Amino acid sequence: MDHFEYRDGMMHVEQVPMAEIAAAVGTPVYVYSTATLVRHVTVFREALGALTDPLIAFAVKANPNAAVLATLAKLGLGADVVSGGELLRALAAGIPADRVVFSGVGKTEAEMRLALERDIFQFNLESEPEAEMLNAVAVAMGKVARVAYRINPDVDAGTHAKISTGKSENKFGIPYDRALSAYDRAAQLPGLDVRGVAVHIGSQLTDLAPLEAAFVKMGRLIEALGDQGHAIRTADLGGGLGVPYDPALPVPPSPAAYGEMVTRVTRGWNVRLMFEPGRVIVGNAGALLSRVIRVKQGATQPFVIVDAAMNDLLRPSLYDAWHDIRAVKPNGKSTTANVVGPVCESGDTFATDRAMDHVKADDLVAFMTAGAYGATMANTYNSRALTPEVLVSGSQWAIVRPRPPIEALIEGDIIPDWVR
């Protein structure tokens, strides 16, 4: 459920007309709903209600906006981070360090030092060499790093190849069949407190069966590690639960169904469970608001050219991802069209042969379910300014990241003296 609704023929976000935001901020602009964020956190937490003190660590990569993170911090969420920058963002937004988990395959020594200085909850290690590096950094600092190994269970999540992370050919984690030896070695390293296991098999999962298969393997591993004398106290089950993008496709499993499966599979593990939801929290809480520049007749169908582009919302170009496209003020007519942006790439295409509301030049359209992996992946290709972001709460709204002027982008370049 989201809080983007039509009232008197106009799309509103909570109590604010989308057209009001477009007029004040300009387009394209990301718009987030606080009420939707609150609802999604509540639903996810309730789904895990049978568990004892789970740590829900929001995947910061999904949406690192400070106002969004601060909203989630007030709701008691932690943070799953994959860079030093994300760690600093999470802490600055008010997420306590003891709720921060550091994941990712390429942690540097500098990032390890930063996380150890801040005393984060846990590192999720992705390789034996990473364990050796973290141990050396921790020993040099006179600290002990709390760690888990991320395990690659070789389970196909059934999702897009570019967001699959749990198959043997993916770069993430250590192979399941190497786990026991890796834990034995890590336990000998004085700078590490080896206390957990972690798994994450992919993003936008629409079936619980792969997740259950991965979790069952983790349960067996926890038992085997215990038999070898390793006291496993945490199990990070990752994130990846899908959200509905295309209304023509089956609805992904609900958080309630996910929670029931997790509760059943993990019964008897005697560990603190951890989760890294991202998309399921923020996906439906955001929309990208754009204006139609013009409509151009193509060889077979019209091209609706909008002022948003692939640099604002990369997912369709990168993943062939679907976003529902709605007129902010529909006129009751429909059409079939190609929706494209102004960037000079054929890949700057949001939809092809899309049945949608009929629109004309200067109309506003909204790309729905854009709160996750939207603004965070934006860039300045074609010297286009980064997309601003707006947060709405009831009848209030605020710009939570302004659109930087193009002049600032230009001034960031330095021309050497010998060129001048």
TrEMBL record:
Enzyme class, UniProt record, top EC level: lyase
Biological process, per Gene Ontology: lysine biosynthetic process via diaminopimelate
Domain Orn/DAP/Arg decarboxylase 2 N-terminal positions: 36-282
This protein's pathway: Amino-acid biosynthesis; L-lysine biosynthesis via DAP pathway; L-lysine from DL-2,6-diaminopimelate: step 1/1
Binding sites annotated in the UniProt record for pyridoxal 5'-phosphate: 240, 276-279, 373
Keywords: Amino-acid biosynthesis, Decarboxylase, Lyase, Lysine biosynthesis, Pyridoxal phosphate
Cofactor: pyridoxal 5'-phosphate
Active site: 344
Domain Orn/DAP/Arg decarboxylase 2 C-terminal: 30-371
Superkingdom of this protein's organism: Bacteria
E.C. no: 4.1.1.20
Positions where N6-(pyridoxal phosphate)lysine occurs in the chain: 61
Annotated Pfam families: Orn_Arg_deC_N, Orn_DAP_Arg_deC
PANTHER family: DIAMINOPIMELATE DECARBOXYLASE, GROUP IV DECARBOXYLASE
Known partners and oligomeric status: Homodimer.
Family of the protein in this entry: Belongs to the Orn/Lys/Arg decarboxylase class-II family. LysA subfamily.
Function per UniProt: Specifically catalyzes the decarboxylation of meso-diaminopimelate (meso-DAP) to L-lysine.
Protein name (record): Diaminopimelate decarboxylase
Source species of the chain: Sphingobium algorifonticola
